[in-house]
Design goal:
heterodimer, A: mainly alpha, 4 helices, B: mainly alpha, 3 helical TM bundles of succinate and fumarate reductases, elongated
Chain lengths: 126, 112
């Protein structure tokens, strides 16, 4: 970055076509950030639930509030996607499934399974 | 580590913590689905059990380390200004440290 770079830059995100592996990668990153942001709220729930009988009851009430349930669906998706994609990345580190065709299939599987688990969770709420 | 492998510690920390987090989350999810604690007393007993307490504190260290490396990577990728990046990293460190102190306090209160 020392010299002025005159090479053309094309960064129109709406026009770049992303392969499924790139989509998995960006979702993995976004979900990681979401999970970190959620951390204080989860610690708050833990604090309530352990603090006293009344706190426990209040925490239970909180997590059955419709808005919190709605958020929890997002968090379940975030956690399952981050977990499944993370396992895939670890396998790639050990050079399992590095071939392009296999990596594409595993990316589809991860994206699909995370949504599937989230839908099962959503179903359990209804 | 020598200067040639500066990112190596972070890289290893991210992987090792990832494995622990995956195992710990699997266990917690298993408990909450199949044998959920049904009262405040039961929940507290489960968490303050010595083995679980140690697993929780290790989990705390692992998740904070994992969050640090992950968010640090995000900042390094998207914040080109070194000054702003340093400020962002400092705020991140303060936030994660606070979360750590908070959970340790929760655990100490639960155990005693």
């Amino acid at each position: 970055m020392a010299k002025q770079d005159s090479r053309p830059v094309f960064l129109n995100l709406l026009q770049i076509r992303f392969p499924v592996t790139a989509i998995l990668s960006i979702i993995h990153r976004v979900m990681g950030v979401i999970l970190v942001v959620a951390l204080p709220f989860l610690i708050y729930l833990l604090d309530l639930a352990l603090e006293s009988e009344a706190g426990y009851t209040y925490a239970k009430e909180l997590i059955s509030h419709p808005f919190v349930l709605f958020v929890s669906v997002g968090l379940v998706w975030a956690l399952t996607h981050h977990l499944f994609a993370g396992i895939r990345f670890l396998l790639l580190d050990f050079e399992y499934g590095v071939e392009k065709s296999v990596a594409r299939i595993s990316a589809y599987v991860v994206n699909f399974c995370a949504v599937l688990v989230t839908l099962i969770y959503l179903g359990s709420l209804l | 580590m020598t200067r040639r492998f500066q990112g190596m510690n972070a890289w290893i920390l991210q992987r090792v913590s990832a494995v622990y987090l995956a195992l710990f989350f699997s266990y917690v999810i298993y408990v909450f689905i199949f044998i959920p604690p049904s009262s405040h007393e039961e929940f507290k007993l489960w968490i303050s059990n010595p083995v679980m307490s140690i697993a929780m504190l290790l989990f705390l260290a692992m998740i904070l380390g994992h969050a640090w490396v992950g968010i640090r990577d995000v900042f390094m990728d998207y914040i080109p200004s070194l000054t702003i990046r340093a400020i962002a990293l400092m705020l991140l460190a303060i936030s994660l440290f606070s979360c750590g102190v908070w959970v340790i306090r929760i655990m100490v209160v639960a155990i005693i």
